[in-house]
């Protein structure tokens, strides 16, 4: 007798997840993990704070972007929530009428943590490529490294890295570099 196909997660499954967990639907599977630790949330806030003035508001930079932290994205059958995402203003001139967004962003940043690194580097990176998102940053807080990728012919090309003590000048935000160390408000656990 043939085995029944595994049940695909639904949006109702996602809505039923307790609020103390983050939930996403990836490849039909409900993925849950704990809410991010304070250093993770602080890094996302600081990254948004670095990018918003020059790229969102045009203060000292080109402007033309909208940034959101943890937006709920519906990318085909997948429901994902990157740590930070950005859209060029011409692609999102009006606020979506739903709590989720179906327009793929032009850039996403995932902040890696032990509970999410495999998902972020694996299936979510593939999903972002399939959605045609042109730029992806992966920020490894434990390693103190930011990797930037550009989507080229459907594949991610590593276009640069920045380590602690260096400046970030990575596409699409290379016009206004900032110190990577500014994303680390807390002393490292080794200090």
Describe the protein's architecture and organization.
Residues 11-172 form the Putative restriction endonuclease domain. Pfam families: Uma2. One of its GO terms (molecular function) is endonuclease activity. This is Endonuclease, Uma2 family (Restriction endonuclease fold). The chain has 191 residues and is of the alpha+beta class. The protein is globular. The longest helix has 19 residues, at 38-56. The strands form 4 sheets. It has a 6-stranded mixed beta sheet with strand order 3-6-7-8-9-10, with helices on both faces. Strand 9 and strand 10 form a beta hairpin. The chain has helices at 11-15, 38-56, 117-121, 123-130, and strands spanning 21-26, 29-34, 65-69, 73-75, 78-80, 84-88, 107-112, 135-140, 145-152, 155-163, 167-168, 178-179.
Keywords:
six-stranded mixed sheet; two-stranded antiparallel ribbon; tt1808, chain A; about 20% helix; 12 strands; hydrolase
Provide a concise account of the structure shown:
This protein is α+β, with helices and mostly antiparallel strands and 191 residues long. 19% of the residues lie in helices and 32% in strands. The radius of gyration is 17 Å and the shape is globular.
